[in-house]
Amino acid sequence: MPEINMAQCKQSPQEFIKNAFTPQVAVMCTPLAEKCCQKNNLDFIELLQPFSRLNNDVHYKDPTGLTISIRNLKVTFLDITWRPPQTPLARKLLNSSVSGAPESRNKIFQVGKYKLDIPSSTPWFESWRDTFLRVQYPSDHEFTKHFLACILVVSSSDNTPAETFVHLTQSLNQLQSTMPGKLPKWFSSNILKYYVIVHDNVEGDGVVILKKLKIMIQIRPNALHSKSAREAEEVKNVLNYHPLSPVNEDLSLGDLINEEDKPKNPAKQQPHGNCLSTEDVEQVKLLIYEFTRSCLLPYIEKQIVILNDIVSNKKGMSKSLFSATKRWFSPNKPGASSVAVNNLIYSPDSPELQIRRLGDLYFMFGHYSSAFQAYHLAKRDYNMDQAWLYYAGALEMAALSAFMANESNRKTCDYMEESITTYLNTCKMPQFATRATILSTECLKHQNVFGDAAHQLIRMTSEESDLRSALLLEQAAYCFLQSKMIRKYAFHMVLAGHRFSKAAQRKHSLKCYKQAYQIYENTGWDLASDHIHYTIGRQANNLQHFDEAVDSFSKLLNGGSKQSAQQQAMFLKEYLTILGNKLKTESEADQLTNPILPVPELDSNSLKILVGPTRPLSTPGKIPAMGINFNSTNDPNTESRWNKLEEMLIQEAEGSLPMVFKPLITLYTINKLEKSKPIAVVSEPIQISLQLVNSLQTALHLKDIYLLWSFDSENEVISNEILDNKIDDYVKTYVTKTITMEGNSKQDLVLSLTPLLVGMITINGFCYTLTGSNAPTDTSFIKGKQLINIPESNTKLNNQNNCNNNSKSQLEIKIVPPAPCLQFEKNHITSVPLTGNVLEPGQTTTFNIWVKAPNSKGPNAIDLLIYYENIDKISIPRYRLIRHSWNLTVQESVAVDVSSQASHNSKMVEELALAMKITNLNKVHNSVLTEVMLLNVGLLSKNWSLTKDIVTPKYINLHSQESAHILLKAKRAVKSASEYSSIPLNSDKKSIQSLTNTYLAFAKKAESPLLNIFDDFDCVNYKENKDGILLLQWKALVIDANNKRVVNGQCHIPIEVNRKEEDVLQLERILSDTVIDINDKTVMEEERIEIAQKQVSYNLVCPSIVQHNFAKQKLCIVPIKLLLHSIIDNKDLSVVVNTCEESVQSSINKSNLFYTYASSSFSWLGNSKIIKTLKPLSTDTVDLSVVFSGPGTYNLGANIQVSCSKLNQTEPYVLQSCQIHSALIVVNIDS
């Protein structure tokens, strides 16, 4: 991770401290000397300033003889008349130093989980602190800002340069004798004087003039030569311009600078040093070097010796009895009681000040260890004297000396801390406390003690100066950042931004808030984030950074905001105003494109596209097909039902299904858009449903809403983004006038357009005007747009193999040529059937549709799908569909219970007895009354047919909860396909043929599972009914509160012949079992045997009473017919009939209790074993004769056994379990 350098300077902390305390040299110039320098567009001090830092090392010796080497010594030259600016001007200079400072390049720094984009340096802070130190008023408690020397400058053009020097010296002496506390301030009464003559070579030989001056006066002035403007013109191509020249940086470009690129207004950027040659510049450098090496340093060396002797001789001596008394009896720490002592003034020659002078000389000239000793000694004296201002200054310089000597420790750091608090709290001098803080924090940061540095910086913030507080808070924030204290960094950066804003430094305020937001973003601190966004937006707007301002205000318009509705409404109005300001500054080309607005939000996942004709308007007596609309359910099961219906229709129309069946799509959702591109027919509307979300607390008002599109037809692309009269020739766009969205609401919006040409249309978004309120006088409104794209999650699968995968894709719709469009309307009564011919455009036809109500009671829906084709086989789409759903409520009608039993009285073929119970389920107190009339009963079967043996009343009408019982008989009639047999139940015996056909059609569908193709349960559990379906047809008069109506109905009841008769003994045996082994195969074996015993049924045909004269003839012989019925439909049977005596009756007949009173004492005549062959479901007759020896009642079935087996099989014969209920009464008659 790169190191985070906060307030990084071009100088190290040591260099910064050295530059803060440079030797001060005064300059006195005559007017002619200044005039000579002005030829170079410079005054004398400006001439020297760029070269005031020596490039060579200089040396001096301390009192011990130790040589002190000074590297890059800098001397500050000031005009002797210079005065620190007054407070208003000083504040102006400080503000200008910040606002005019250059920007710093930002760099990305990784701090924990954050990647922060922050400046690599803060040149505005460096500029401010340099200015702050420069405008500071010199104080009497220190001598670093006092003049050590004075340079007297005259011109060779002066009438008498020697006399001029004398006058300047007198003026200097007069200034030195001014009252203490007045400016300028001098380091001592005996300062160094240095004489300089400025000479223009045009005015003569400067060497001659210098010699004359040396003879006239007892000084050795230095000469400074310069060229005239005329000579400068001759050498301007080889000149090294003065470093202060504004065009000096361009010199490196040389002749590459074009004339047109040069400044057009030379008056504003006049170059400096035009009359200076290279030799002149070197002379200036030499002047400063010689002044420093030959004069200033020897003078300083001498002063150090003098001051050192004074300090050594007078060390420990008090200047007065009063001072000694104070040292013994006064506290030695600064406090509130010592405020008055701040006014203590030492005499200029007092030992305490001499120690301070010595320390300042050591410090300014690089002897830091000796400086620390001097300051340490001075601070003890000041502490004892309670001279707290002097004490604070000595502590400050002692701490800096230790740092510069690389001997800093905890104690010396405490010196600086105590110095700052003394300046601030005791002396009430915040300017010196600020200076000490600036110097101290540089030392602490260099030592990586960033926490202490931050606290010192924060302490110096106050209401006195917003600019100072802002700069120090910003530096404190960077200290916290260096310490990885991220939240403190962000918090103090916000505070800095706030103070910058109060100081009218908008640029820096904006910068601070942007840096802080990098931490507050996505933290959930919504109110803090809102404050930052709002301030960034306001400051950026004031700086005319409109893009940034709009972006910040747009972030305030989000659903996560916890602001009140009124506050959000204010944010919205300010956003619209700032966006309006931005649009005014854009070029005409940019203004043609509408901006993207942040509200309302578009839920892309709810996007739906509906292509196709609109539903026709309803007319009296006609109900148009519901078709597909945006309210159609997205339930997968419902969609699957429609798709299955479509598949059935295609199979019916085409004769077979295509290799890959793809349902026709009219309503496109997001899931469908990822798989197929929408197709629309020219001149038919395209409707797009959008769900808009207003997550704000305040209402939103939208006007003039319409779709934005671009149309591509034959290599011509046109868009309605830019309104043009030609766009209506391509696409007709419909406009929604206005909608209002309440706070925290969602609203579905349907926008539509109609393509008029074949091509490709791309839906780019929708355009609308967003207003601040619904008031007609509200002027805050902006016309903007929102883009419509298919979300990434729905395009990822299609683009996973595409290296150029985009996060979103455009919504494109293919427009195809015209296609037939059929509309469907439902009448309650229809008359004309559909002929099957092709319909011409505009033609209408009608047809009948009979609908069977669902089986479940309550609300239900019936789906109808109509299929029609395009005559052109290669057209797209190949076919079209019309959907319609009936929503209805199914009420209770009739309940039918049917019991079926094989008849034992068959005469020719097997017969079936059917008992029906029909009940009207309508409740007596129901609001809807139903009266049911039974019309007809029928049987649809391929094995049975109804007989006419039925007697019924003229009409069978059932009121609420009434029932009717009907007995029917069917006989065996085996056919290859089901046939319908019926019996009317009313005397009219009339029926509508179309209704009869409809009844029968529904009945035939009930024979197969196709009717229940959408019900998986019905399909899986469907079981073919071999015996047939009983049909009950009825009509009902329904009376409700509104009207009366007649409805027709039919009940389908599957029948199954009941041939099972429980054996009482067997039932008792099963019930008596207490333990059942689940692994025992007895149960399965019994079931198999039971099935084998029910393959043939039989009954006897005989008279019920026979009269016989037993006196005349002892035996009564009666002929009997035995009818054998095959009741299986899949195999031929071999049947064996055995007639036996009573003694050989099977146990199966012994258990029959029905004929316990009937006698079985009779005999059969003829062959006792008869073999017959039965075809499936056939009947055969066996002729038998029975012999009775006396009168009585006889059970004829008691002595008959019937066994069967598969024909031509070796399986054993199985005795059949059919019961014969046939009794014969023999009556004896006399002759």
UniProtKB/TrEMBL annotation:
GO CC aspect terms: TRAPPIII protein complex
Domain TPPC8 C-terminal Ig-like per the UniProt entry, residue ranges: 1096-1204
Domain TPPC8 third Ig-like, residue spans: 885-1053
All residue ranges annotated as the TPPC8 first Ig-like domain in the record: 633-825
Any single Pfam family the record assigns to this protein: Ig_TPPC8_C
Alphabetical list of SUPFAM superfamilies matching this protein: TPR-like
PANTHER family: TRAFFICKING PROTEIN PARTICLE COMPLEX SUBUNIT 8, TRANSPORT PROTEIN TRAPP
Protein's name according to its UniProt entry: Trafficking protein particle complex subunit 8
Source species of the chain: Rhamnusium bicolor
Organism lineage string: Eukaryota, Metazoa, Ecdysozoa, Arthropoda, Hexapoda
